[in-house]
Amino acid sequence: MRLRFKSVLVFIFILIIACASVGVGYLFYNEVVERSNIVVDGDLTINFINGDSFDLNGDATIAFSVTNNSDEQKYYYIQLSDVYASNVNYELKSSDDLDVSNTLKSDIIYNQVAINSNETINYTMNFTSSSKENYSGTIKIGLRANEENSFADMILSNNNISSTSLTSFGEAATLDEGLLESKDDLGVTYYFRGAVTNNNVSFAGYNWKIVKINGDGSVKLVLDGIIEELSNYYDESSSFNESAILDVLESWYDTNLVDYSSYIAYYKFCNDTVLEANGTTYMAYNRIVTNKIPTFVCLGYSENGKIGLLTADEVVMAGGSTDSNNSYYLYNSSIETNYYTMTNARIDGSLYYPFIVNIEGGLEYDTNGTLVRGVRPVINIIKTAKVSGSGTVDDPYQIIMN
User: Fold this and answer.
1) Domain-located, residue 155
2) Count of the separate structural domains present in the chain
3) What DSSP element (H or E) covers 26?
4) pLDDT for 102-139, tens place per residue?
5) Residue 152 located in a structural domain
6) Which of 157, 324, 350, 354 is most buried by its number of CB atoms within 10 A?
7) Distance separating alpha carbons of residues 23 and 44, to the nearest angstrom
């Protein structure tokens, strides 16, 4: 639990505190937040001398410190979030010789910094701006467990987090847009978009691609290909939990993944079966095709299970569109059959039309769900799983089996 104590201080008092804790004098080019914000997170005390948020222009300097009040070594992260900036750079220096420079953006600067018992580490962050435009953001620092990184931690430490995508949703993302931040039903989520090359996982004898870190810290994977057995989506009902394709998925799971079930999360898969008032299209059709505003928040019904399919929203967030895309990570030239998502697009009488992904990587919505098409499984790895590897094709992440 975090306890916050805030008090408004005059500029001179801030300057005195800064000089005392860091041991140097500061020339502030801007009026930074004139308050000390002290956060207690477990055994750590974080003193944001100029506040944990900044709103500046031009060159400026802010300072903060981290103190370990315990008798054992601890670990913490340093992160920039909610950053709005253009042509601004920063340099972060510490009293224990840390020195990192980068463009100012929402990013994890360090994921696991070690601090010895009863030690205080002082930091200064110098901003250099090439324009007079305002820039702002928040510095987040918090305690990490004294253990190996979880799967989610490893992904975050190996990627810079982008605040915005290079392309608009609805456009084919053909470049490596990296890891981006969004929200799902469970909280903050981080997802890969475009032609990324470091989201590879080897698990249960198969190759997988990371789709996203879920809001609860589990990690969503999609098989890097389709399974041998093809399937129609439904026999009578458009509901995923009553579908023919779920029977195929569960049979494949029992044959190939059941021995690894302790590492696979029981998770909610979104089945968008909510019709618009016109009675012929589903909400997802207007959201994805017309308005181009995909979301990880489930606006339909959630089906609980250990295996499912991609949603059409996840395909678009990954970089897919109604155009072909042979460059983003969901495209695989070895997939020679269109495959189903679990998102409904439209209805015509008694016939349902789910979104599918075609062999060129594009979304389509004119396939009758009674037709036989490809099956591409999706699973979620538990949030406590530990991994090795870096996520590249030659060094994929691998779950460390207990």
Assistant:
1) no
2) 2
3) none
4) 889 887 787 667 788 999 999 999 999 988 789 999 99
5) no
6) 354
7) 21
